TrEMBL record:
The protein's name: AAA+ superfamily ATPase
Signal peptide: none
Gene Ontology MF, one: DNA-binding transcription factor activity
Organism phylogeny: Bacteria, Fusobacteriati, Fusobacteriota, Fusobacteriia, Fusobacteriales
Domain DUF4143: 85-231
InterPro entries, alphabetized: DUF4143, WH-like_DNA-bd_sf, WH_DNA-bd_sf
Organism of derivation: Leptotrichia trevisanii
Length: 285
C-alpha cells in the first residue's frame, strides 16, 4: 500500500503508465492466452478457473509463467499506477491513507450492499473522520479510474431503481489479491464479481434485484432480453437449494432464470429455473 511519504516519488514513477480502460480477459480468453504461453502444460477447466480466480484477467500476467510472486508484483504496479495517476493526482486527494482504507473496505465487501454513509460510519468507529460526501467522491473517483463498478438495486415489483444500498464490484479481482493475498473465504463475492463482469461483456445492463424482502443477485437486460441470476459457491444441502431458488420462484414472468454454482452436478431444473455450473456458463457464447 502507498504511504503518504512515498507519494511524490511514486507519482513521478507511475505517471506515464497506461490506464486500464477495457475489460480484462473473459474466462474463455484467459484459457486461450494461457495455452499460448504455457505450451508444455495443459490444465483441466477447474485448474484454469482456479488461476482465473487467483490472478484475474489482465493479459500480461501470462508473461510470468504462473509465478505468483511476479504476477502479484505486476498487479501491484498496475494498482499503484492507476491509483496515483487517475485517482490521487486527478482528484487532488491529500489523505492517501483514508483513501486506501475506503478501498480496503470495498475489497472486504465484494458482494455486499453498502452505502457511502456505512463507510463513513465504519471509519468513524476506527477513529478516523471522513464525511459521507467525501466518501461518495472517493467512490466516484475509483469508478472513473476503472477500479470499481457500481451496481444499483432494482425494485422488481415497483419497476424502479433504488437509490440506496448499491454493490461495488472490481474491474479485476487480481488487484485485490495483489494487495491482500488470495482469501479463499471470500469465494462467494469473487464468483459474483466474475459473473457480473461476464454479463457486462455480453452487453447486458446489470442491476441487483429486490423483490419484497428477497434479493436476486443479478438482473441482466439488453434490448428485449432479460435474465435473472443467482450465484452461489456450492448447493451443499436442500436448505441451500431452497434459499437460492426461492427468490427466483417468486418472479412472475417467463424470462430465463438461472442458479449458477461450482458443483459438479448434472444440469437440473426446478419450476423452470435452470441450475448451471459457473464454468459452463462462462464458456457459453
Amino acid at each position: 500500500m502507498i504511504k503518504r511519504e512515498q507519494y511524490l516519488k511514486e507519482i513521478r514513477k507511475f505517471m506515464d503508465k497506461p490506464v486500464i480502460k477495457v475489460f480484462p480477459l473473459s474466462f474463455k480468453e484467459f484459457i486461450k492466452f494461457s495455452k499460448i504461453q504455457n505450451l508444455q502444460k495443459i490444465y483441466n477447466m477447474e485448474e484454469y478457473f482456479e488461476q482465473y480466480l487467483k490472478f484475474g484477467g489482465l493479459p500480461a500476467i501470462h508473461n510470468f509463467s504462473q509465478d505468483k510472486t511476479s504476477i502479484y508484483q505486476y498487479l501491484t504496479d498496475i494498482y499503484n499506477s492507476v491509483l496515483l495517476k487517475d485517482v490521487i493526482s486527478r482528484n487532488n486527494i491529500r489523505d492517501i491513507e483514508l483513501l486506501e482504507r475506503v478501498i480496503l473496505f470495498i475489497f472486504d465487501n465484494i458482494g455486499n450492499t453498502f452505502s457511502a454513509k456505512k463507510i463513513s460510519d465504519f471509519l468513524k468507529n476506527q477513529g478516523r473522520k471522513l464525511s459521507t460526501e467525501t466518501v461518495y467522491n472517493y467512490l466516484k473517483a475509483l469508478e472513473n479510474a476503472y477500479i470499481i463498478s457500481k451496481v444499483q438495486r432494482y425494485d422488481i415489483k415497483g419497476k424502479s431503481i433504488l437509490e440506496t444500498q448499491e454493490k461495488f464490484y472490481l474491474l479485476d479481482l487480481g488487484l485485490k489479491h495483489s494487495q491482500l493475498g488470495y482469501r479463499a473465504n471470500d469465494i462467494a463475492g469473487h464468483l459474483e464479481n466474475i459473473i457480473y463482469l461476464e454479463l457486462l461483456r455480453r452487453k447486458y445492463n446489470v442491476n441487483i434485484g429486490k423483490l419484497k424482502t428477497k434479493e436476486i443477485d443479478f438482473i441482466g437486460q439488453r434490448e428485449n432480453e432479460k435474465l435473472y441470476i443467482q450465484v452461489t459457491y456450492l448447493l451443499a444441502s436442500d436448505d441451500t437449494v431452497e434459499r437460492e431458488f426461492a427468490p427466483l420462484k417468486d418472479i412472475k414472468d417467463n424470462y430465463p432464470k438461472y442458479v449458477l454454482s461450482m458443483d459438479n452436478l448434472t444440469k437440473f431444473n426446478i419450476n423452470g429455473i435452470e441450475r448451471k455450473k459457473i464454468i459452463d456458463f462462462l464458456l457459453e457464447q
